[in-house]
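hey
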């Protein structure tokens, strides 16, 4: 039964989300860790596409690390790329260059079988509608404040930056994003971010957190990290790889997917309705100015969010949509 469900989810991903057609060429880019899912997508692609190619690379060390140069060139030569890889290629130059040439790129970093089956639902109306509603709420907003009962108190400006609506439906020329998805995200004005961020859900490459991690931020750059256990130290090592570039707050996002749940895999976690997330590192692909080979997301549960003076989320309840 799990195999049949995986095969069905693979077909849904390619047909309903990527819009793959019989006259198109498909590249499935995977690694040894996600081989099972990669091969399921390849087999589905063989049935749908004019030509399907399966390529397996060695798993990358961190999210945002570039694939091999030869693979980056191959990505430019097809109509559709779908990438179930254990580390994200979403925020890479290879992905950006392929998208510029009109290639549709769906990334599935560290996706699990459970996420495939649970979140790749052929009826995407709820995700699409929620995402569009949140996107519209960004209109005219200059400043955002995020607080939480655990201690988050962070302010930043988004003036002049454009939010991105990620529904997971990637059918237009040059579309790119996560599959599955369900979020609206934006690059804050980097130097405007100030305050305390308490990450209490999960962090990319770490998973579900045992203890909250306290992150002090001044003028967009992390100045101090603290917390019980080894997770805070590991997070510190992650974002210290490229000096200030990888310590800079690069993204703010709001989850809009009612099918997603907190699992420890950031691909799904950051889409959970009623959560927000911040990321550190590269934001070149969505209007920012930080260009380092790293992008690390951290999730905040039950936040309160103000758009200028208007509350749009109250302790994890998104006030913009009906239950």
């Amino acid at each position: 039964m799990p195999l049949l469900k995986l095969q069905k989810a693979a077909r849904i991903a390619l047909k309903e989300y990527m819009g793959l057609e019989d006259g198109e060429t498909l590249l499935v880019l995977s690694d040894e860790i996600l081989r099972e899912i990669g091969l399921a997508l390849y087999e589905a692609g063989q049935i749908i596409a004019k030509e399907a190619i399966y390529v397996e690379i060695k798993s990358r060390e961190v999210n945002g690390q570039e694939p091999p140069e030869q693979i980056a060139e191959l990505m430019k030569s097809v109509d559709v790329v779908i990438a179930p890889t254990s580390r994200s290629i979403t925020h890479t130059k290879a992905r950006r260059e392929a998208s510029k040439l009109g290639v549709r790129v769906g990334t599935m970093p560290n996706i699990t079988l459970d996420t495939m089956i649970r979140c790749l639902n052929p009826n995407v109306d709820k995700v699409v509608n929620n995402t569009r509603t949140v996107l519209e709420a960004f209109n005219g907003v200059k400043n955002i404040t995020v607080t939480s009962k655990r201690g988050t108190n962070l302010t930043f400006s988004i003036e002049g930056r454009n939010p991105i609506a990620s529904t997971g439906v990637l059918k237009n020329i040059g579309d790119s994003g996560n599959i599955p998805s369900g979020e609206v995200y934006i690059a804050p004005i980097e130097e405007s971010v100030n305050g305390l961020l308490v990450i209490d859900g999960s962090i990319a490459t770490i998973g579900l957190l045992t203890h909250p991690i306290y992150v002090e931020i001044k003028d967009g750059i992390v100045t101090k990290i603290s917390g019980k256990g080894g997770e805070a130290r590991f997070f510190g090592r992650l974002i210290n790889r490229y000096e200030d570039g990888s310590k800079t707050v690069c993204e703010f996002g709001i989850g809009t997917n009612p099918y997603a749940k907190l699992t420890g895999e950031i691909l799904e976690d950051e889409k959970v309705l009623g959560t927000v997330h911040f990321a550190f590192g590269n934001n070149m692909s969505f209007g920012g100015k930080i260009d380092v080979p790293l992008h690390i997301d951290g999730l905040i549960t039950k936040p309160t969010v103000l758009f200028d003076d208007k509350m749009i989320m109250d302790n994890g309840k998104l006030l913009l949509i009906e239950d």
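The chain has a mean pLDDT of 95. The chain has two domains: 2-119, 125-318.
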